[in-house]
Design a protein that fits this description.
Strand content: 25-35%
Number of domains: 1
Shape: flat
Largest sheet: 4 strands, antiparallel
Helix content: 25-40%
Number of strands: 4
Strand order of the largest sheet: 2-3-1-4
Distance between the termini: 13 Å
Amino acid sequence: MAAYVVAQMQVHNIQTYREYASKVPPTVVAYRGRFLVASDTADLKEGDQPYPRTVIGEFPTMDAARAWYESDEYQELIPLRQASTTGTVFMVEGFSILSSSGAPK
């Protein structure tokens, strides 16, 4: 089942963030991941959005997502992200089976 890494952030040092962003893609691809979203624009309908930038990456499994995040290659890049942004990073599993009503099981 697919897993998604979601990051929401405020970039406060664009040069350092660009360095981080230029080095991340090869680490994601190495773990069979891909980027689905990287945007500073959201059509907010409800609630608050404390961090304007949203990045969503997809991996084939939660194990693959965790292996990427915990890899030496990505661990070396985390300080760049943390030095240039404030925000959150979390992982969620997708679902592939719907109930007869169309709602997730």
